[in-house]
Amino acid sequence: MSDVKALARAEAFARRALAFAAGQGQAAEILADYLAGQGGKVLSGYMPMRTEIDPLPAMAAHQGTVGVPVIMGKAMPLRFREWSPGTKMVEGAFKALIPEEGAWVEPEVLIVPLLSFDARGYRLGYGGGFYDRTLEGLRARGPVLAVGFAFAAQEVAEVPIDATDQRLDAVVTEKGVTVFA
Ligand SMILES: Nc1nc2c(c(=O)[nH]1)N(C=O)[C@@H](CNc1ccc(C(=O)N[C@@H](CCC(=O)O)C(=O)O)cc1)CN2
Ligand SMILES: Nc1ncnc2c1ncn2[C@@H]1O[C@H](COP(=O)(O)OP(=O)(O)OP(=O)(O)O)[C@@H](O)[C@H]1O
Q1: Which ligand is closest to the CA of 113, given by its number?
Q2: Predicted ipTM?
Q3: Cβ contacts of 53 within 8 Å, gap of 6 or more
Q4: pLDDT tens across 41-93, in order?
Q5: Is 128 in the pocket of ligand 2 (CB under 6 A)?
Q6: What's the domain count of the chain?
Q7: Measured from the CB, is residue 162 less than 6 Å from ligand 2?
Q8: CATH classification at residue 80
Q9: Which ligand has the shortest distance to the CA of 128?
Q10: Does the CB atom of residue 129 touch ligand 2 within 6 A?
């Protein structure tokens, strides 16, 4: 399975890079509109890295607390530190930017980065299993809305999956919103 996922990751990086070069259109506005119904809830976003689609305008528009992921260690769930557009950021593990300080928050709605996704709502990430562990833990505690955010070209026929993969509830792209059954 790890070879299958590794090959899928390499293909997905290449497709995402092409889409990134073409631009994200109104994707962040579509995401903000979709999330407008979630005002008052704690939202997690992410600091875009590499060729990830940029969710920052939707995070800045959120009516309520926003956090961003912090890696606590290998094989550990992510935690989320409060973020706002003015927060001082420093480089964390794997070069992702994290808030230098701030409160830990527990998201009810998550904007989830990904390499590829499919029509079942499965996603492929960088391979740390961080979002799978995190969603498993949060869902054991209460209802959570996991919203993938991606370029439409990141959709594939079937993402390779294993028993620990957590499904997305919806995905938002520059072409619109898909809610999974
Ligand atoms: N913007 C953003 N922030 C995020 C994530 C993300 O996917 N996007 N994460 C979502 O989990 C976490 C970061 N996870 C990451 C996991 C691996 C690598 C990475 O560069 N991995 C190397 C291989 C490293 C190794 O195997 O030792 C690589 O892919 O080359 C980067 C980030 C938390 N923050
Ligand atoms: N809840 C979990 N408990 C134990 N192991 C897990 C859990 N979730 C994922 N893993 C393990 O983590 C490893 C990486 O998982 P996977 O390849 O699905 O990562 P990914 O979804 O691509 O990455 P990420 O979620 O960080 O973006 C796998 O060995 C997987 O079995």
Answers
A1: 1
A2: 0.92
A3: 20, 24, 27, 28, 149, 150, 151
A4: 999 999 999 999 999 999 999 999 999 999 999 999 999 999 999 999 999 99
A5: yes
A6: 1
A7: yes
A8: 3.40.50.10420
A9: 2
A10: yes
